[in-house]
Write a structure and sequence with these properties.
Blueprint: E1 3-8, E2 10-13, E3 18-25, E4 28-39, E5 46-51, E6 57-59, E7 67-72, E8 77-82, E9 91-101, E10 108-111, E11 115-120
Parallel strand pairs: 2-11
Antiparallel strand pairs: 1-3, 3-8, 4-5, 4-9, 5-6, 7-8, 9-10, 9-11
Length: about 120
């Protein structure tokens, strides 16, 4: 069984920083893209940042220059460093990964349980 376990998040004042971490575990053959999405109350889930297996990155315009995504393939971990946080960044942040598990011929999408990030003004 493949799982994504998140840690980090919490409450921070505007201008502060937080770091999110997510580790994949289980019977994993290979991991393709890893990333982070977020969902604010009353809004749709949106992409925050994505990193490919080759470490190419893609960011939402709203976080460019403030957030940094990175991954450690050996540890099956993806990190999101969030700096200069703003109240508009308040949301539940979900880890995402495209994983091929043992016994499967195809890659599937997996999601973490979600981590609350709250930025006070």
């Amino acid at each position: 069984q493949v799982q994504l376990v998140e840690s980090g998040g919490g409450l921070v004042q505007a201008g502060g920083s937080l770091r999110l971490s997510c580790t994949a575990s289980g019977s994993i053959i290979s991991i393709d893209d890893m990333g982070w999405y977020r969902q604010a109350p009353g809004k749709q889930r949106e992409l925050v940042a994505l990193v490919t297996r080759g470490s190419s990155t893609n960011y939402a315009d709203s976080v460019k220059g403030r957030f940094t995504i990175s991954r450690d393939n050996a540890k099956k971990t993806v990190l999101l460093q969030m700096n200069s946080l703003q109240p508009a960044d308040t949301a539940v942040y979900y880890c995402y990964a495209v994983i091929r598990g043992y016994g499967n011929y195809r890659y599937s999408d997996y999601w973490g349980q979600g981590a609350q990030v709250t930025v006070s003004s």
